Amino acid sequence: MDFNKTLTIWYSEHKRDLPWRKTKNPYHIWLSEIILQQTQIAQGLPYYDAFVSKYPTVFDLANAQEGEVLKLWQGLGYYSRARNLHTTAKHIANDLNGIFPNTYKDLLKLKGVGDYTASAIASICYGEPTAVVDGNVYRVLSRYFGIDTPINSTIGIKEFKALAASLMDHEHPSDYNQAIMEFGAVQCKPKNPYCHTCPLNESCVALQKNRIDQLPVKLNKTKVSTKYFNFLVLLSTDKKTIFQKRASKGIWQNLYQFPLLETDQKLKIADFKKHPFISAYFEDAAFDFSLYNNKDIVHKLSHQHLHTKFWIVEIDQLPQKGIPITEIKNHPTPILISNFIDEFF
Question: Which DSSP symbol is given to 56?
């Protein structure tokens, strides 16, 4: 069976109608690829539309304030993508006169652009036959060829990249790359793939050997840690609160949050006022407090689970400079904080 031809024919009949498939503008393709990293299309599409609407060109994005970009990105997670997006936009606008690199090799030099994204842009925009390898491609190749090398191992990454390159359609690299990715997303899904209607089912090794649910293989490298977050939601009599920009490096860098007390275990109501951080933070000031959520709000990230409590603190005067409560929704925040704000205020 002609693997390439079968996929491209399937793609021409089944591809979804998506806005970035109607253009070869590298700015739009780059934007879509960054947004869709670790994000489903259904979730990412509204963000793509919002970014293209607010920042029609790379110059518009470059001239934006980082806070504005982070605010528009709010809810997508992995905020380093947004920071890298803004940094790269400024580089392209200011150093490259708004012109994107037009080769895989040069695209790799852009901050936030890795092998997959560089391959996608190079093939879709410039017709360079560079093979894309994302989660969908790993799944299709591992099942079709019956490969059980872990996809997140050093050997596996090299093996699948080499295989993908050997299968590349050099005459139609854009269609082929998009075809195999779409096939993995729509037909050869992670769970309950449509094997009975699959055009490759007669030669799929995983299907013949009943190994669909076993492939691809992935090493469990991520050790998930548990953290206990206690946010202090201060409310003064003049309707102000303390909302701080998180300066330390990490996933929430440059996002805003309420003052945070991180503890080794759950903080009980009886121990809240006695905690050294609380007594030092408020000194001798009188305040009333209550717990917003008796049950922890568990926010799951790839590497850690955050068990979160929001403590409502009513006080006459804030212990430090604050902002009007009405202004907090103007700042970029993690979705965990944003959800609380929407519910409480």
Answer: -
